[in-house]
Design brief:
Elements lengths: L1 E5 L10 E5 L8 E11 L1 H8 L15 E9 L11 E4 L14 E5 L3 E2 L7 H5 L2 H14 L7 E5 L4 H13 L2 E6 L5 H6 L4 E4 L5 H8 L5 E6 L6 H6 L1 E9 L12 H6 L3 E4 L3 H4 L2 H17 L6 E6 L3 H10 L5 E5 L1
Helix pairs in contact: 3-4, 3-10
């Protein structure tokens, strides 16, 4: 028996329950993990609230990221042994697996031995943020040294990962945030420039910083009507990546920006990387190299106890965090 987080109806954080559940023996191709820490992600909040890309089947489990030690391995699993320190990459569906628990099973393709220099808390905070940012900026965006990237919701864990990756590549990360409240924290996190999009003239600022060229990439989890302003701040043949839907309203696009600049608007999901074995291996290599070199490091914003899982969800919904929200067991 182990304590597992489940919910029996969609709704607010209060629907999350910690229940004693018998955890099955790992099947073929599965690794069983005794969890030491888990990461909280916006997707899990949306799934719990009934706002995700598919509906939960009740009682529903959830959770994309965890770190801990291998407790058992299923048939056919190679490269992992009992006691190994491992972490989990989001490469599966909540319909099949969930990492919110004391003991969980995970598909072996989503399990990785993390560098010893990472704590369990840091390892649980690593993969969603860095793989998401890597996919857009590196795999699909081909961001180069000297190019400018606009990073919206920059104080989120993925936003901070994007800042670090841009700096690693020698690019220029411009952090976008709603107000000036988080300005100094974003500079401390490595942003070259910070623009408060509700208070500053975004287009004028970006054009001044780029000598009139604009940003070649925009990386945005929000969407909504303000996208048109981001597009006006982009360069010729720029690419706009939308990887979330924090603003569910339709985007508005200025036709002459789209046509005159030959812009590409692209929906992007983490799973484009994690469900493609070749791309995932490239992502793992890039991120592990960055961690080992000290150029990439997960930023933890707040840590909660497992018993406070609902509080952790409410904190994410408050949008106060700077960095990753982690829960320890």
């Amino acid at each position: 028996m182990a304590r597992i987080v489940r919910f029996h109806a969609t709704g607010g954080a209060e629907v999350l329950r910690i229940e004693d559940i018998e955890v099955a023996t790992p099947k073929v191709g599965e690794v069983q993990i005794e969890v030491k820490a888990l990461g909280i992600n916006r997707a899990e909040v949306m799934y719990r609230a009934g706002q995700y890309t598919f509906e939960p089947r009740f009682p529903a489990i959830l959770g994309y990221e965890a770190a801990g030690r291998v407790r058992a391995v299923g048939e056919g699993v190679e490269g992992f042994a009992v006691g190994d320190a491992v972490s989990v990459i989001p490469a599966f569906s909540f319909s099949d697996y969930g990492m919110y628990g004391e003991v969980v099973n995970a598909p072996v393709h989503a399990v990785v031995k993390h560098p010893p220099l990472l704590s369990f808390e840091e390892a649980a905070a690593t993969w969603m943020m860095f793989v998401t940012a890597y996919g857009a900026l590196v795999e699909f965006g081909d961001l180069k040294a000297g190019e400018t990237v606009l990073i919206r919701a920059a104080s989120s864990s993925v936003g901070l990962a994007a800042i670090q990756i841009a700096n690693l590549l020698g690019a220029v990360p411009i952090a976008l945030t709603r107000t000036r409240e988080k300005r100094q924290a974003l500079f401390a996190a490595g942003a070259a420039h910070v623009i408060a999009i509700d208070e500053d003239d975004l287009v004028a600022e970006v054009m001044s910083l780029t000598r009139g060229h604009g940003a070649r990439i925009a990386f945005d989890p929000v969407g909504g009507p303000q996208v048109s302003t981001l597009l006006s701040a982009m360069s010729l043949q720029g690419t706009y990546f939308q990887y979330g839907a924090l603003d569910m309203r339709d985007m508005s696009v200025r036709v002459m920006d789209l046509l005159g600049k030959h812009l590409t608007l692209r929906g992007y999901e983490l799973f484009e990387i994690t469900q493609d074995p070749v791309r995932l291996e490239r992502a793992k290599g890039f991120i592990l190299d960055g961690i080992n070199s000290g150029k990439l490091r997960p930023v933890i914003g707040q840590v909660f106890a497992f018993e406070d899982i609902a509080v952790a969800h409410r904190f994410m919904e408050s949008n106060q965090q700077i960095g990753k929200i982690v829960v320890t067991l």
